[in-house]
Amino acid sequence: MNKAYVAMFLVVLSGLASAQMSPVGLWRSIDDKTGQAKAEIRISAQASGSLSGVIEKALVTSGDPNCDLCTDDRKGKPKLGMEIIRGAKKAEDKDVWEGGKILDPENGSTYTLRLTPVDGGKKLEVRGSVAFLGRTQTWVRVQ
C-alpha cells in the first residue's frame, strides 16, 4: 500500500516539474540592452494548442502608450493588454516552442519567435528573429 502512495507521489512531482518547463505563466521581461525589467507578460495556452502572450503590467513607461508603429490589427491600440505573442507551438520531442510571432511594441516590428524554458523553468529565453538576424532576451518567471 505504501509503495502505491510513493509511486503516485512521484508521478505528481514529475508532472509539476514538467509543467514548470512550459512557457505558460507570468513572466517579467528583461531588456537585453539595459538589463532593466520592462513589463510582465502572461503567456497562456490556447484551444488550438498554440501560445498567446499579453502585456499585463508595464514596469517602465516610455513613449506613446499606444502602438502607433504597429502595422497590423494592433495599430493604435494600447500596449497594456496587447497580445505580443501569437501562434507558438511546442516542437516535437523537445522543450521549445516555435513557429509563432512576437511583436516589439516599441518599434512595431514582428519577429519569428522561439521560446525555450531554462534553469528548471525559472527563466525563459525569448528569441525574435528575421532571417538569420535576431536577438534573445531572458525573461524571469513571476508565477
Give the helix/strand layout:
Elements: H1 2-20, E1 25-30, E2 37-45, E3 51-58, E4 83-90, E5 97-104, E6 109-118, E7 123-130, E8 133-141
Antiparallel strand pairs: 1-2, 1-8, 2-3, 3-4, 4-5, 5-6, 6-7, 7-8
Radius of gyration (CA) equals: 17 Å
Relative strand content: over 45%
Query: Helix segment count?
Result: 1
SSE arrangement, N to C = HEEEEEEEE
Q: Any idea of the CATH topology? A: Lipocalin
User: Uncertain segments of ≥5 residues (pLDDT<50)?
Assistant: 4-19
Give a description of the structure.
With 143 residues, the chain is mainly beta. It has one domain: Lipocalin, CATH 2.40.128.520. Strands 1-2-3-4-5-6-7-8 form an 8-stranded antiparallel beta barrel.
Short synopsis of the structure:
This protein has a single domain, classed as Beta Barrel (Lipocalin). Helix content is 13%, strand content 46%. The protein is built from one helix and eight strands.
